[in-house]
Amino acid sequence: MRVVEAFRETFQAEPEGVWHAPGRVNLIGEHTDYNDGFVLPFAVPWGVTAAVSPRQDDVVRLRSLQADGVVTLRSLDEAEGWARYVAGVFLALREAGHPVRGADLVVDGDVPQGAGLSSSAALEVAVCVALNDLYGLALDGMRVALAARRAENDFVGMPCGIMDQAASALAQEGRALFMDCRSLATRNVPFDPAAHGLRLLIVNTGVRHALADGQYARRRQECENAAKRLGVDSLRDVTDLAGALGRLDGDERRRVQHVVTENHRVEALIGLLRAGAVREIGALLNASHLSLRDQFQVSCPELDVAVEASVRGGARGARMTGGGFGGSVITLVPEERVEAVRDSVTAAYAERGWAAPEIYPAAPSAGARRLI
Ligand code: GLA
User: Fold this and answer.
1) Which atom belonging to ligand 1 lies closest to the Cα atom of 121?
2) Is pLDDT at 371 greater than 80 in this prediction?
3) pTM attached to this predicted model
4) Residue 105's closest CA among 52, 58, 49?
């Protein structure tokens, strides 16, 4: 294994173990996690593999096969760039009182870059499960996810919800992960499109617009403001949508419209899966996309064109997935239409003079685990 060879070469020793954590794609339930709502992501076949050994001191030495050099952190605050995601996990665990000392780590990632498939959550969770095992912390999957999110919120400074880290930590092969982001209850729901003659494709637009992070924080704030105005703890608690909309206007009104209806779409989609009506979920994917485009306003032309071209090519449904302003589209396609959808999306991009998007098949894959 490449990461083990690199560990030997870098640290002249065998790693104590090797762990893997995947990235994720979200089937539905977008911008609902930080509103105490519902999400339904699944793990992708790509992720981060980490070869790790504990140390007797508090030093952290790090190498990534996707970056140059070895980073030595005598103090975790010194971390820069990608190393902050790793340092953040050590800090989050130590701050929670766990007896975590230093480590030597080599990480190797294959999550497509810029695809919005949570390569950062994969890195955080891979490091967190490694430290969990090596230092005998006995954290369950959700506690691993919470520590990984704290790393991102407090140390990297991205105010994300719990979806990405939870998906990486708790997903199972052949299943999507239904999660109530208020109670943190989760359920692995069987999801096997292939058994219904369907394929899931991920269309990576290859763009990430510069405003992504600022707009994400702003959407969160708008949702909190709207909840306050409505006198509820979070938008999860809005039961009378018509009444709520009557008391709001402008952007806040649109945000509430999206979040409340998106939670219902997650529940409806679960109901269809339970009924074995996988072909019918496409309409909910389409509705989710329109709501994200028009009400939550986090789409962009590259995402919209990929969605429209997928549907024109014969997809049952398609939507942007993840935070928005770039990243990927997920599209549900009948087997016999896969080539037509690929051609349709590629042609639509070419017509506009945009670089061809990468298109990959994705089946629900396993969550974080120890490999060696
Ligand atoms: C990003 C965040 C998640 C979630 C999605 C939107 O991926 O990291 O917590 O809020 O955006 O659904």
Assistant:
1) 8
2) yes
3) 0.97
4) 52
Report the pLDDT value the prediction gives residue 299, as an integer from 0 to 100: 98
pLDDT tens across 219-240, in order? 999 999 999 999 999 999 999 9
Determine whether 107 is exposed, middle or buried from the number of CB atoms within 10 Å of its CB (0-12, 13-18, 19+). Answer: buried
Cα 116 to ligand 1 centre (Å): 9
C-beta contacts of 144-150 below 8 A and 24+ residues apart: 144/169, 144/368, 145/169, 145/170, 147/89, 147/92, 147/93, 147/96, 148/89, 148/92, 148/121, 148/124, 149/124, 150/88, 150/92, 150/95, 150/96
Beta bridge partners of 176: 189
Give the span between the Cα atoms of 362 and 125, in whole angstroms. 20
To the query of whether residue 294 is one of the catalytic residues in this protein, the response is no
Strands 326-334 and 369-370: unpaired
Catalytic residue among 58, 164, 233, 237: 164
List all residues whose CB is within 6 A of at least one atom of ligand 1. Answer: 30-31, 33-34, 160-161, 163-164, 322-323
pLDDT in tens, 307-348: 999 999 999 999 999 999 999 999 999 999 999 999 999 999
| CB atoms closer than 10 angstroms to residue 9 | 10
